[in-house]
Amino acid sequence: MCCSRFFGFLIVASFLLLATATAFAAPLNPLEVRAQTAYDRAITHYQDGRLGEAAGLLRGFLVSHPESPLVTDAYRTLAAIHTSRDEANLALGYLDKIPAGQQQPTDILLEGRLRIRAGTVTDGVALLRTLPTDELTLAEHQQRALLLAAGLAELNQPQSALYFLNQSLLVEGALTPDEILARMHVLMDAQFSSTDLAEAAFMYPNTPIALLAQLKLGWQALAFDQKETARQMVDLVLEGGSGFLYRDEALTLLSQLSDSNQLQRAIGVLLPLSGRYAAFGKLVQRGMEQARADFRPTVPVRFIYRDTAGDAAVSQRQVADLAISERVLAIAGPLVGSVATTAAEDAARQNIPLLTLSQKEGLPASSPYVFRNSLTAQLQVDALVTHAMNELGMIQFGILHPETRQGQMMADLFANAVEMRGGIIVARESYLTEQTDFRRQVRLLQGLDPNAPDEEEPDADAVKKEEEPPPFEALFLPDYADRISLVAPQLPFYGLEDVQLLGTNGWNDPMLLKTAGKFVEGALFVDGFFRHSPYPFVQDFAENYFAAYGEDPTILEAQGYDAAGILLTLLNDPRTNSRAGLRWALAQMPFFPGVTGATRFDFQGEAIKTLYLLQIKDGVMTQIN
Fold this sequence. Notes:
Layout: H1 6-22, H2 30-47, H3 51-64, H4 71-84, H5 88-95, H6 105-117, H7 121-130, H8 138-154, H9 158-169, H10 177-191, H11 194-203, H12 208-223, H13 227-239, H14 247-259, E1 266-271, H15 278-294, E2 302-307, H16 312-325, E3 330-332, H17 337-350, E4 354-356, E5 370-372, H18 377-391, E6 396-402, H19 405-420, E7 424-431, H20 439-445, H21 460-467, E8 474-477, H22 481-493, E9 500-503, H23 510-516, E10 524-527, H24 536-549, H25 555-571, H26 579-588, E11 592-594, E12 597-601, E13 607-609, E14 612-617, E15 620-623
Parallel strand pairs: 1-2, 1-3, 3-4, 4-5, 6-7, 6-8, 8-9, 9-10
Antiparallel strand pairs: 10-14, 11-12, 12-13, 14-15
Helix pairs in contact: 1-4, 1-6, 2-3, 3-4, 4-5, 5-6, 6-7, 6-8, 7-8, 8-9, 9-10, 10-12, 11-12, 12-13, 12-14, 12-26, 13-14, 15-25, 16-17, 18-19, 22-23
C-alpha cells in the first residue's frame, strides 16, 4: 500500500478540534458533564499514545452515553485509533456509524483510504472521486490526490495514477515535491511500459515528470542493448538542468553506457563470515556454492565474496568496491537487517541490483534495484490464513502469542489477514517468555474466569459454559518448538480442546514431536523449506548437499541456493549483460522453481512464494501441499 500511516493522524487533528469546540457550548447538565469527563479521559489516553486503553474507554463511553452529542466524535476517534493500528475493517465500521448529515471531508478522505487498504479499491477510488473539492483545504487536496493515485495504481491504471500524483504536486501539503517525484519514480518503474513512458514524456513536457520518463526510457533501452536510444534519452535528461532530483542516476546511466562492456560476469556476495553471525553466513555460502555446482550457465559467472562481519559500515565500503572496482553485475546478500539496510541504500545509489536475504522490514520498497528472497512473517501468515479460510472453511480464530517483538508482530499480521478476508478474531492473549503455567491465558481464551479455583464446585450455568465447544475453530501460536512443547499440553488440560492449532516455521523442529507428542497431532504450520519434501528437485538438492558436506541442509542453505540459482539462471541469457538488464529480468521473472518454494517478485521487489504447508500426522511431519 502506497499510503503512509500519517494520513490517519492528520485526520484525527481535525476531529479533536471539533471536540474542543464542543466544550465551549452552552452550560452542561450533570449527565452531559459526566459524558464530557468520560470522553475527555479517553482523549487524554489517546493523546498519550495509549491507544488500547483509549479505545476501551471510548467504547465504554458509547455504551454509557449513547445520546451524547460527542458520540460522533467518539466514532471518529475510534476510527482513527484502528486506522493507526492497521485495522481497516474495524475503522470502517466506526466511520459507517457517523450519520450522513454529520460527515466531514476528513471522514470521506479516511473512508476512501481505508477502503483502499481493505482491498475494496474500486469503492475507495469512487468515493474519493465524488468528494467535493471546494470543501477541502490545500493539504486535503493533496491528500485526496495521493490517495487516488495509490488506488488507481493498485487498479493497474498507471497513467491515471500519474495524473493525480501530478495534481498533488500543484498544492502544498504533507509531502514535498521531491517525495512525490519519488513516488512517480516507483510507479513508472513498476507499471509503465515503454509506450506509457513515451506518453508521459509527451503529456508533461518541460517538467520533472518528462525528465523522469526519459530517464526510465534510457534504462529500458540499455536493458535491451539499444545503446543509441539510451544515449539520446540520457542527453535529454541532462539537458533538463542540474536541479533534477535524479540527475545523479542519469550520470550513472551515462557511465554504464560508456563502460557497460567492461562489467565482469560476476556476482558480489555480502555475508557475515566472521563475528557473531558467522555460522549463519557460512551456511548461506555453502548453499550458494552448491548452486554454482548445479546451475552451470553457458558463460561462467564468478562469485566474489566479501565478509561483512555483521557491520553496516564495513558493508558500505564493500558495496562501493564491488560496484566500482570489481564491476560486478549484481550483489547477493546481506543477511543481517542493519547491514542490509545500509547495503540497500548504497546499491540504490550505484544502480546495481541487490538480491537480499534479510527479513528487515521495508527493504524492497526502498529502491527499484532491491529485491528480497527470504521467508518473511507476512508470507507465513498469508499462507496459513489462506489455507485455513479457503480450504478448511474456518472463520473464527484465537491467538496466543509471546510478549516479544516477533510474537506481537506475528499476532498483528495474523489478525489483520483474518479480518481482511472477512474472518473474526474471537480472543487474543499473550504470555511472558519465561512463563511456564498458562492456565490464566487458556481460560481467558475460553471466556472463563481465570481466578476461579479448579477445585471449586461450579454452578449449573458454569457447568453448561464449561461444556460448550471452544469459541473459535483454530488457535494461532507463533512461537518456537521449545515453548510450544510447554503450551500445547496445557491447552486440553485446562479445557481447550478440539481446536485446530496453527503455527509458524518455528514449529519445524524434530524435537517438537518428541516433547509435545500427541498434543500437537494434526497441527498445521508453514515453512520456507522442508528437507523431506516429496518434490524431486528438493530431494536432488538435499542429496547433493549431503554428499558434499555430510549434513542435511537447513533453510539458510536453501535460501542461499535459490538466490544464487535465480541470478545464475537469469545471467544464462546472453541478452542479460548489464545491471539494468538484470534488474529488468528480476522484475519480470516468472515463477522460479526454487527449493524454498516457487518464487517471483512483486512490483516492489518483495518475494511472492508458494510456501510449504506442513501437518503433523500420526506423529510425523508431512507436507500437504
